[in-house]
Amino acid sequence: MSKLGLALGGGGARGLAHIGVLKVLDEEGIKVSAITGCSMGSIAGGLYAYFGNSKEVEEFIFKAIKDPKFELLDIDALNKNTNHPDKNYFEQFINYIGERLHAIKALGRLSYFDNTVTKDIYQMIPDVTIESLGIKFSAIATDLISGKEINFTHGSFRTALKASSAIPGIFPPVEFEDKLLVDGSASESVPVGRVKEIGADRVLAVDVTRSLNIVRPTNNVLDILYRTEDITSYHLSQLRLQEADLILRPNVKKLSWADFDKAEEIIKAGEITARENIDKIKKLVKRNSYLLAMEQYVKKLKEKN
Question: H-helix or E-strand containing 65?
C-alpha cells in the first residue's frame, strides 16, 4: 500500500494555499500517511493531522484570522507599501517600523512582537502531543544558536508549531531546551526529505515560495542584503524540491507573506492547482512502490552526474 507524504513549504499567508490542496485530496478520497511542514506549512499540515479533515482546518484558520487577538497584531500593516509589492517580509518589516516612533524600542528586543503580545495567539493551537495525532507529522524549525535544522517528530504540538512559524525579527524566538528556535524556512523551505524520514514512500510537495524576479541594479548595502535573502531562499527551495515526486506550485508567488486578508483567494489558488494536477496526483498514489523506488534511485544518480 502506498504511503503518500506531503511536504508543505513556508510562505506566510501564501501557505494558506496548502488548505486548498488538502480540500481537493479530501474530495478525491486520497489518504495522506505523513506530513512535514515548515512555517505556515507546519500550521496547515499540523492542523490537518490533528483534525483529520480540511474542513475543520479551514474553519480554524478563518476563526483565528478574525479573532480580536490576531487582528490586534495588525499584520496587514506590514504590507501597506503598495509601490513595491515584491518586497519580502524583511523589507516590509523595516519599512513598517521605520515609520513609527516605537521602532527604537523594537530594535532593543529579539522581535517586533514580544511574547506578551503573541502568547494568546499560540494558545489557540491544540495542546496535545505530536505522537497523539491521527497522521504522522513533523515540523521544521531552525536553531539560532547551533545553526542546525530541528525536526519536531514528538513532544508538544503547540511548541513545534510555534517554533516552526516564528518569523525571524517579527515573532519571538522560542526557547526550547538549550535551543533558540525560529521559522524553519531559514534552513528548510520545503521539507521533502524530512517527510520520507517519518514514513512516506512518495512525496507530493507544495511550493509557495516567492518568485525570483529580475530586479533593478542594487544601489546600496540594504538592497544587496534583501536580494541575497531572496536568492538564497529560492535556490534552497529548488535544491530541496529535487527529491519530490510531484510538485504543486499554486499561483500565489506574487502575493505577500502578510496577505491574510486574501485568505479565500489564496485557498482557492491551492484548490485550482490541485484540481489541475489531480490526474498526476492519482497516478503518483497508485504507482507501484518498487517501480517508484527504482525511479527515485535513477533520478538521484542523474542528479549526481
Answer: helix 54-66
Question: Do the beta carbons of residue 118 and residue 174 sit within 8 Å?
Answer: no
**Dihedral over Cα of 220, 256, 215, 213: its sign:** positive
| C-alpha atoms less than 13 angstroms from C-alpha of 41 in its C-beta half-sphere | 30
Q: Looking at the predicted structure, is the pLDDT value of residue 108 above 60? A: no
Please, are residues 99 and 47 in contact by the beta-carbon 8 Å criterion?
A: no
- 145-169: pLDDT as tens digits: 998 999 999 999 999 999 999 887 7
- Asked whether 142 and 182 are in contact (CB, 8 A), the reply is yes
Residue listed under C-alpha cell 520520507 = 196
User: Length of the chain, please?
Assistant: 305
Q: What is the pLDDT of residues 177-190, one digit of tens each?
A: 999 999 877 666 78
* 69 pLDDT above the threshold of 90: no
Taking the C-alpha atoms of residue 118 and residue 17, their distance in angstroms, rounded to an integer, is 23
The secondary structure element, H or E, covering residue 137 is strand 136-143
Q: By the 8 A CB rule, do 289 and 39 touch? A: no
Picking from 202, 248, 190, the residue whose alpha carbon sits closest to that of residue 7 is: 190
Residue among 291, 269, 253 nearest 23 (CA):
269
- The cell numbers describing 247, all together, are 510538485
Q: Which backbone phi and psi does 98 adopt, to 5 degrees?
A: -65, -20
pLDDT the model gives residue 48: 98
pLDDT reported for residue 91 = 60
pLDDT of 284 higher than 90:
yes
- Which residues, in sequence order, are bridge partners of residue 141? 150, 183
Beta-bridged to residue 151, according to DSSP, are: 140
Grid cell in block for residue 55: 474542513
Residue 289 neighbours by CB distance under 10 Å? 12
Contact criterion met (CB below 8 Å) for 10 and 183: yes
